[in-house]
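pinging the channel bc i need a second pair of eyes. not urgent but kinda urgent?? the chain im working w is below, pasted from the shared doc
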Amino acid sequence: MPTTTLTSPEELFRHGLRLLLDKDIPAWVALWAEDGVMEFPFAPEGWPRRLEGRAAVAAYMRGYPDHIDLRDFPDLRVHRTDDPGTIVVEMRGVGRLVRTGGPFDMTYVAVVTFRDGLITAYRDYWNPLAVQEPGLDFTGSAR
């Protein structure tokens, strides 16, 4: 679905989730503005806290499907804000870890800003304690 037919931040975000489930990382990265910024305020030591620009986001996400096989985003809630270009999203990502076959279940809260149909800012408040659980290893993916 071309992003030109999508009009609201919620539609664009949901489209991005579909691309992640389809493991179409290049198309997901294409939803980003050239100067888009992705931040991880709760990232543990050794993990990136800020990615600047579409190229940095692409490099970060390149191997994601080789490590995490996302299957669904249940419990998705999208909240509008006073800024029509910004949404707050609560969701879970579920699937399996490719290396071990073990379950993947991560809770997220994200603040996402769009301009001209592209992501300009994405603050991802994921649970850093989950990477400390036995069998959960993201090494080489988004790190």
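so The longest helix spans residues 9-21. and Residues 3 and 11 are 9 Å apart (CA to CA). — does that match what u expected or am i reading it wrong
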